[in-house]
Amino acid sequence: MEIELLAWVMVRDGQGRVLLGRRAGTGLAEGLWNLPGGHVEPGESVAQAGARETAEEVGVFVAPEDLAVRGVQRWSVGGASGFNILLAADRWTGDPTPLENTSEVAWFDPDAPPADILPWLPAVLARVSGGALWWDEVPG
To answer: How many structural domains comprise the chain?
Structure first.
């Protein structure tokens, strides 16, 4: 069985808010708010994948070396399994805009995320925004 590796990026502004995108056209969790991110492609580092996905989905450019690992989550769902790697970016450029697989972007206080967000994400945002590292395992 292949292990999937996913990179998710917490882009933060000067007020501590987190940039989220509303999922569209993915066939999975349609319409829910999420961090920009996705699959790590062969030959890419996790940071390179996070930077690429962030640019593709929300039009924000982050240098891979400016991404810091903030947590890891092991998951197993519907016969697939893998790891979510959470990265944080406080330095970035660009104008956040909805692009690939994203219908809308907005800034949110990590302690007050929208109600229609991926279920596992609010606890992660609160923990990481408080400075803690995150490790979790999603039951399969």
So the answer is: 1
